[in-house]
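COURSE: Structural Biology Practicum
ASSIGNMENT: Worksheet 4, Part C
STUDENT ID: 0417
INSTRUCTIONS: Below are two proteins. For each, the amino acid sequence is given first, followed by its structure token string. Answer the questions at the end about the second protein only.

PROTEIN I
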Amino acid sequence: MKNILVNGNNTNLFSIVNVLFLAGLLCYWVSLPPLGCWYFVFFVPVFWTFVIEHPKPIRFRIIYLGAFLFWIASIWWIACPHPLTSLGLLALAGYLSMYWVLFFSASRIAVFCFRIPVVLAIPVCWIGCEYLRNHLLGGFSFCSLEHALYRQPLLIQIADIGGGYFVGGMVMLIGSGIALGVGSLWTRQVNRLVWSLVAGLIFVAALGYGFVQTAKTVESRNSQSNLTIAVLQGNIPVRLNGGSAQTEKTFQQFIDLTNNAVRNAQATKQPLDLIVLPETVCSIPLLQYNADVKPTEFEDWTEGSIEYWEEQFELFRIFVRKLGVPVLAGLSTLEFVNPPEPTRLNSALLIDPNSDNKNDGDSNNNATNTTEYRYDKIQLVMFGEYIPFSQYLPKNFFLKTLCQEAGRGTKMVAIPLNGEQLFLSVNICFESTIPHFIRNQVLTLKKQGKEPAILVNMSNDGWFWFSQQIDQHLATHVFRAIENRRPYITATNGGFSAIIDSCGVIQNIGQRRKAEIVVGSISATDYQSPIYHDLGDCPAIACMFGVFVMIFAGWYKNRNKPDKTF
């Protein structure tokens, strides 16, 4: 079998294959924020289909280099928090670029070695590679192909069947079908025209499914009683080592926004059911320690005395009681286990002045610290909340200066509202970018008899200078709403705070770079049990195995060739 993957003589950057690949790459970038010309996303597979079907070998160093430039241009915001994070940007871009090489390799092997129609090979290989990207090394789902369509709800409703992967696969299928249809005009091959028509029918079916689902959600929303929720949006950039001045300024902004939200509700005579603050904007930590351990054992703690912070937190509780509205606050929990230093947890805490609820936590905890429901973040951000293998690094190693390491939460928590008449499921920061994590949250709480009616995200995107990162993050919220068929609200500092319905339609959203109170109504019964909850990622896993089969088969057939690729 001839080598269809690489040829040493194909070095011309402006060869037809390379030009087509770069054209598809450019369409991909243009379709995503900041430009957001979503319709260009369908041209990506059009160009790449011609590349994959091209009879001449392709040069994968061009694929890798082009992918590397794409990722640098798309996720440059990773370098914003600190000069050293530029190294992380380069490393991550280099790592993500390998998936494009894997995609083109597997697709060409499927087409040339197994004679699989390109209209099937491309979406299957794309979904398989995207599944790997979303799982390996903690997963990274920003800038997925489907995110270009996050403001086109009719086109993305099939995400409740196979997750966002299905939408990305559909885009690849449709674009490939267009390419086959165009190609059939010259080749006069009936089978290519047939596959093009099949792709068109699938697109029509997906569009029809979108009409049905959005209509059902509108009908449900109009017929059910609603909750009125205020999600707060801050506009204060976050700096590493910003000190207490930055922390206090941020907290004061949200205290003011909270007061204004209650005043506005009283003025309009529309009571609020919940106020949501973003991640870590409350500067007062929640202290947690075992009841049989005396606080004096921690008197060497350099951040202040136990008594001082407990007094401050009690003042915060009094503030919420005076508001008369439940507040879901983002803060740090300091867990004292072994003196002298506590473990910091990134937490969401509900303070409800209207109930005497008790935490699901350990009853041995100090009683003054267990009067609210709390969720501790489980999926931590590498180099943001933990350093890999930090226990083996010197105490003053330079990487440890990048972040204050956090502890990891251990369980899913259902947060009750209105006297446990309904439950919220909270995710924090980039947990929203992990589809299987949010799905698992909902299903775990459902098994506990506390099925969440609303999904809540709390984020602090102030690290990223109001870049396209905040648009990219918003896109992930939209897909989590559809995949789980639940209303989704997000409160963010430095990004977008928004209220999203169960069809992924953004009902209310703050303005870029503005400090705002985003108020909206949510139906507490506007949720369903989507097919994605039953299927999970099984279709994507099958596609991943298909990619492995293609790669192994290509390696096996080329193992004895002097110019072998793998």
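PROTEIN II
(use this one for the questions)
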Amino acid sequence: MSNDFAQFQDAFFDEVAEHLAVVEEGLLALEQNPEDRDLLNKIFRSAHSIKGGAGMFGFTAVSQFTHKMETLLDFLRNGQKAVTPAVADLLLKSTDCLKTLIDATKSGAAVDDETVQRLTGELAVASDLKVEAKVKDTPSKSSVISGLTSTFLIRWTPPDWLFQRGLDPLQIMRELRGLGTLTDIVMDQSRLPDLTDIDPEKCCLSWSMQLATSKDLKVIEKVFEFVREESKLVIEPCEAPESKDKIDSANNASRDTLHEIRFTNDEQRIEDGAPKPLGEILVESGVVSSAALDQALAQQKKVGEILVEQKVVTSQQVEQALQKQRQQESTAQSKKADTASIRVDTAKIDKLINLVGELVITQSMLSDLGMRFEMNQLHVLLERMAQLERNTREIQERVMSIRMLPIGTAFSRFPRLVRDLSSKAGKKIQLVLSGEETELDKTVIESIGDPLTHLVRNSADHGLEPPAERMDNNKPEVGTIRLNAFHEGGTICITVEDDGRGLNREKILAKAVKQGLIGENEKLTDDQIWPLIFKPGFSTAEKITDVSGRGVGMDVVKRNIEALGGTVTIKTALGKGTTFTLKLPLTLAIIEGMTVRIGKETYIVPLLSILESIQPKEGTVKTVVEKGELINVRGTYLPMVRLYEVFNLQPEYTDVVKGILLILETEGERVAVMVDEILGQQQVVIKSMEQNFRKVEGIAGATILGDGTVGFILDVRGLLEIARRGVPVAA
């Protein structure tokens, strides 16, 4: 496959993802407003765009399945069918199936053909349509003849720009064949110029053909919808051919279908570098003949099974061919580049271009000044350096803003999730979203999907009560889950709130004691008890469901949020509800940091983690056996970490009184870190340690400082763990 064509396909898959989101969101809204014709039209247009694009690229399975959805949607928007809960549910399941078809088309993976065929049948029944035979089945004579009620003569002269827009006339033929039996196809070459004058990008061909079908004229016209512009198209009824002709046509169609199956059996797609189908590998290896393969393909089983049953090949030979196919598939997958893309508002691009222009002007002014610089012009140099700094900072901010996306893209999955959870749990749940326009770095948005999903599922299953229980407690029978996002300082806060039972303090304590997480007589505050639910394997669910109750999920939430440099806190009231608050950095690429010095080394502390800095007095530091050093900060003892011991450095001060202590906090826990000096505050670009070296406890990453040296960024959670052990870590 050429790189240019691959780029077009990438754009198609990006657009399909957007259309699928429109379809799913529209269907969820349609359940609440079944008479909304504008909404139905919007859903139909998106489905139609998916079908047209898939057809243009030859993704037949996607195109045909979407066509079934489109037919039902067309009946709904024209008022011929009513939007019932069953219809909406079928369309949502079909949307899920369409997603898997598209993912399989993109990755080359296998498809659950049974599910596709079942939903295809259900869509046909819902549309009062006859269920058509599977494309890869060989149609029998009787099945071809039955249902063919009309014959149409089609004469089509496409516009000369057909190929230039990536349109394929063969795809039109395939779609027509899907409507019935296509016969008497004649290609007119009279418009072809001499070979010396031919333009391969222009279409100079015309076709005439006959289509025997049970469909009406409108359905046939829709096949030509994307090529109708400037085409000469005539579709008119004609006398049907005799039965014998129909049967002959059916036999020809069967052979054509088998020919196509030969290259698509076992759910494989043929493209440059893609693995070959199993049947083709067996023929190339000389294990079976082409005729034997054709005979096997005519049956409705996998090629390997048929050939073994017929004793044409042994199971070992099939396994060898499958092994070769898997190797080819692995090679093909490794060649595929997982390219990410992002759509950017043109206003952001325009501002960035203007800033680059200003930067060029400033650079030109500095170059001009450098050629004739004198000391009496020092103030001019400083002014222009300041201008350069402002330009650089603003460009940095604008470039970062390009990666910023509304968090609504992460929230969009939850209306469907809550709908399904509500149905599965037998509860009535409404989801309220707010702050969807709040912008966050694309990488962070992609990473918070799973933690948010766990929290929403937890609220639906554990938090909210069944309708009867809610009414007994004088609550509305419909429970509410609220998702909200907002900026707070240099971070973004996301809250997941429910008005359910709230956390049960006694249950959590009893479970924690039973699992040995705390002592039986240990006294804990509420702020120490609530985080226990994040311990691996911890669950207070009375029974296991397919939603939750296995003690899996909440520990994943905590781990994933911490990996993003964020925190998660809990606020709850028994009988009133629970609120989880996630605090995250706006971006993972750049952080605000405080630079500190230990000896000759420079480290960066994330500014969000710093509560204060102090210079301790004599007698405030105590040593506890097996606990390390503690410092008394206004009556509260905090664990203390000497960074020079952790990283095996030569400090300027070993006496705590002469050094400086930074009080750092993460997840409600605090630690005091001793340094020699605070150098200042600055933005730093984070570089991964693990990609270039290895994971170092207490270090979150590295950056290049202004003087060209490397500075390490401290991991506050890691330092807390080190302080808890009370054991220095060698560098």
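ANSWER KEY EXCERPT:
Q1: The CA atoms of residues 599 and 649 lie 7 Å apart.
Q2: The radius of gyration is 34 Å.
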